[in-house]
Amino acid sequence: MSLDLKPVQVRLPSDVYDVLKMIADANDHDLGEEAREILTEALLGKGHILKILAKRLAGAVRTVNDR
Fold first, then answer.
1. How far is CA 57 from CA 47, 48, 54, 61, in A?
2. Measured in whole angstroms, how far is the alpha carbon of residue 45 from the centre of its chain?
3. What pLDDT digit, counting tens, does each position of 8-36 carry?
4. How far is CA 47 from the centre of its chain?
5. pTM of the full structure
6. Rounded Cα–Cα distance for residues 51 and 56 (Å)
7. Residue 30 C-alpha from the chain's centroid
8. Cβ(33)–Cβ(24) under 8 Å?
9. What are the residue ranges spanned by the domains of the chain?
10. Number of C-beta neighbours around residue 47 at 10 A
11. What is the 3-state secondary structure (H, E, C) of 21-53?
12. What are the phi and psi torsion angles at 4 (to 5°)?
C-alpha cells in the first residue's frame, strides 16, 4: 500500500539540523525519513491533545449553559 505523501519544505537552525542528523544516523535513516517520522509523531500528538481540549471545553460550556 502506497501512502499519498504531501511535500513540505522547512528550514532548520544549525543546531536543530545537527540533532536531526545525529538521530537519523543513529536510526540508520536518511534525513527526510527521520524528519517525517518525528514530524508525524509530534503533529499527531498535538492534534490529539487539541481534540481532547476541544471536547473538554465543549463539555464545560454545556455544563455552564445547563445551569
1. 15, 14, 5, 6
2. 6
3. 999 999 999 999 999 999 999 999 999 99
4. 7
5. 0.76
6. 9
7. 19
8. yes
9. 14-65
10. 10
11. HHHHHHCCCCHHHHHHHHHHHHHHHHHHHHHHH
12. -85, 100
Cell of 9: 519544505
Q: What is the mean pLDDT of the chain?
A: 92
Tell me: the pLDDT tens digits for 35-63?
999 999 999 999 999 999 999 999 888 77
Question: Distance (Å, rounded) from C-alpha 34 to C-alpha 23?
Answer: 7
Cα–chain center distance at 56? 21
Rounded to whole angstroms, the Cα distance separating 24 from 32 reads 9
Q: Which residue is it, cell 502506497?
A: 2
